[in-house]
């Protein structure tokens, strides 16, 4: 489907969580050169380490745009990023849109290439969720706030972007996959990658707990733990255990052995994070999740565009 320009009334607030340790100049320059200029750019400094969910929620409270775009502080969008995302939402009468990344780090690029991403714009089937390339209508975000009492779940230190998208899918949100990747400038050492994978394992455990409590077939994304991204059927526990404990054996998918070995080790750290979260919840009551209640999707669909977002948030 050919891209169309967003209407002239479109306004966008861009929210950027940051710990204050990254130079935001490249990101800000990229936003200045957008073909659809943002109404606001809202960097939120999380100096106390309360997490990206907290920072994004703070930014949402300041946002005035009809669309809310989320970027990470080490990402740089292409010039037509906002126009493409907003145009896709309007064209499909959708509630949100998302895409993926172009990795500048050779290892992360090879790692991301293991995933299959559609080359054409389409209705989301479990690909949308990366918090550094995500746009929602303000009306939908306000509806999440009204329904759940929060937008990004601050109990999730990681995977809070996927948790929000999952809740949105449950409530009937129409989301669009858009092949408009943003450039990701992160370069991770082997130790940093393994730490990230451990944290990712904790996030997967929390998503799994949330999925089980909601008793729904709608999942956050495709996973060996619960099945495909658009249905909860098909969990592959034995395959998951094999991958995390022994495999996966995909050396041929990497340009060199060192990249593959780091990927292989990272899978072990991810599995360890999952097991640690499971034990910590049992022993210390950590990493628990709210009791999710699946409500009628028609309610969310009928009100997402009727509420005035300004009435649902306390703007400073």
TrEMBL record:
It comes from Sulfidibacter corallicola. The lineage of its organism: Bacteria, Pseudomonadati, Acidobacteriota, Holophagae, Acanthopleuribacterales. One of its GO terms (molecular function) is hexosyltransferase activity. This is Glycosyltransferase. SUPFAM superfamilies: Nucleotide-diphospho-sugar transferases (SSF53448). It holds the Pfam family Glycos_transf_2. Residues 35-102 form the Glycosyltransferase 2-like domain. InterPro entries: Glyco_trans_2-like (IPR001173), Nucleotide-diphossugar_trans (IPR029044).
